[in-house]
Amino acid sequence: MLKQFTRYSSTFIHGAKYTPEFKVYAYNANNGPNDKIISFFHDIPVNFNRDTGTVDMIVEIPRYEQGKFEIAKDLPLNPIVQDVKKGDLRFINNIYPFHGYPCNYGAIPQTWEDPSLKVTLENDSYFGDNDPLDVCEIGSTTSISKLGDIKKVKILGCIAMIDDGELDWKIISIDVNDKLASKINDVVDVEIHLPHVLSNLKTWFKNYKLPMGKPENKFAFNGEWRDKSKALSVIEECNERWKSLVAGKSSGKGLPIVANNTLKGTPGYHTISVPSPETQPTPKIAADIPLKASEIFYYKN
Ligand SMILES: [Mg+2]
Q1: What's its top-level EC category (predicted)?
Q2: Any idea where the domains of the chain sit in the sequence?
Q3: CATH topology for 10-292?
Q4: Residue 68's closest CA among 289, 291, 298?
């Protein structure tokens, strides 16, 4: 039923970056004439391999980027767009000494943190955040990542962030082509080869919403990083929940749009078409980042 296609090719970009019109679609030139625009969420294969410990990642936010770009689960064929809060395009504040996101950040396709599934961690229970699983890529020696890139990454570990009471796993990974990838096999190896990365990442996740007047994010397991084997299980579980979602077996309010162009036999197959362009328009120049977003935010804790 869930047919996988050959490796995906490129993106199709509508509108200029840092404007509300900006949309980046996954684009598969080899798909049928009316199916070239596909969904990042549903049509890009997860390519999860437990033996090699690898999975594919969609880059939503390249390292040091401030625009809060994410796969739109409520738009047909799920393009990447910039999040909007209270009518304004959302930029992540620079919390001292960081600039934007401290790592390449994105999603694992064909995974879903089910909001109706109660997960018990230690003594508390949480529901999923209704999004694809988040993944951080901490390498830096391959080409600079771009919004919409698909990378194969090695899975290293994870941390259970609790955001507004919802479970929001962050998987830690490194690009398989990074020069350190062969040396880093589990979360314990990260501190040896990339000192301070884990502690800084946790500090960042804990505090990045403070400038918006929100409280610190919390973590389950006393804020400890979990190892690779836990991360593999989390990915597997979220891939299973996604299979139920696209098979029409999940219920609840505000479920993601499941329209897709590759999953024959699913209720969402060929239900929405986005005009498939033959040529990419000339890229529009990005709008300026608002001055307010470039301010540095200091905090005590
Ligand atoms: Mg999430």
Answers
A1: hydrolase
A2: 10-292
A3: Inorganic Pyrophosphatase (3.90.80)
A4: 289
**AA letter at 185:** N
Reported as a single tens digit per residue, the pLDDT across 157-212 is 999 999 988 999 999 999 999 999 999 999 999 999 999 999 999 999 999 999 99
**Which residue, among 150, 139, 141, has the nearest Cα to 60 in the 3D structure?**
150
User: Cα(147)–Cα(24) distance, rounded to whole angstroms?
Assistant: 8
Going by the DSSP 8-state scheme, the letter that residue 279 receives in this structure is S
Question: Is pTM, for the whole model, over 0.85?
Answer: yes
- Contact by Cβ (8 Å): 80, 147: yes
Cα–Cα distance between 242 and 109 in angstroms, integer?
9
Task: Tell me the CA distances in angstroms from 121 to 114, 136, 157, 233, 259, one per residue in order.
Answer: 15, 21, 16, 14, 32
Residue 158 in contact with residue 234, Cβ under 8 Å?
Answer: yes
Q: Using alpha carbons, select from 144, 218, 132 the residue that is nearest to residue 171.
A: 132
Sort strands 124-128 and 166-175 into parallel, antiparallel or unpaired.
parallel
End-to-end CA distance of the chain: 51
- Expressed in angstroms and rounded, the spacing between residue 135 Cα and the centre of ligand 1 is 9
Give the three-class secondary structure for 247. Answer: coil
pLDDT in tens, 209-237: 999 999 999 999 999 999 999 999 999 99
What backbone phi and psi angles, to 5 degrees, belong to 58?
-100, 120
Query: Is residue 56 within 8 Å of residue 49, measured between CB atoms?
Result: no
How many A from CA of 166 to the centre of ligand 1?
9
157-178 per-residue burial string, b: 16 or more CB within 10 A, e: under 16: bbbbbbeeeebbbbbbbbbbeb
Q: Are the CB atoms for 103 and 75 separated by under 8 Å?
A: no
Centre a 10 Å sphere on the Cβ of residue 180 and count the other Cβ atoms it contains.
Answer: 18
- What is the 34 CA–ligand 1 centroid distance (Å)? 31
Find the 281 Cα to ligand 1 centroid distance in Å: 32
CA of 142 to the centre of ligand 1 (A): 25
